[in-house]
Amino acid sequence: MGFSAWLTAHYEEKGPVKWLAFALELVAAITLFLLMILTCADVFGRYFFGNSVDGTTELTEIGIAILVFAEMPIVTWRGGHIVVDILDKIWSNTVLKALGLLSALLMSGSLYYLGVRIFQFADRSFRREEITELLEIPVGIIVQYIAFMSWATAALMMTYGIYHMLTQDRD
Q: Coil, strand or helix: which one is 168?
């Protein structure tokens, strides 16, 4: 089985969204693997050599931020959020689609505004030249990444997420 066939078999998205989903999940998987290696090296070094890896806490925090915000657009456009459907059997399909569209618009607007505010914090971090305590990594880079991924999630919710929501039928 070739790579394209494997990708088609494992990703239901179409076109460039499929490749974006794969790329973001690859980033998340590599990050998770590196976090696992870092934790093992830290524990191994601490117990066998009496010295842990310097900056493990900072690298773990950065890795978790990369992991969470790489997966956020994927979860959003697949509709993987937690949904409470207590009233779905009472209301018509049209009302449910209208409420779903309203919630998608509210989520997109909120994520866009959140991205704007976070980007302002990144700009402030760059102006102040904030760095992490031990490894001296510029904080603004990570904060900017979070802002961009919030915008990507908002954009994908407005495009593919709404399309998917309006075209699927509820049981």
A: coil
User: Structure pTM?
Assistant: 0.84
CA distance 81 to 147: 20
Tokens 């093992």 locate to 40
Burial class (CB in 10 A: 0-12, 13-18, 19+), 3: exposed
The pLDDT tens digits for 60-84 are: 999 999 999 999 998 888 877 777 7
The token duo for 85 is: 């459907």
Amino acid at residue number 140: G
Q: What percent of the residues of the chain are helix, what percent strand, and what percent coil, each to the nearest 5? A: 75, 0, 25
**Dist CA 139 CA 145 (whole Å):** 10
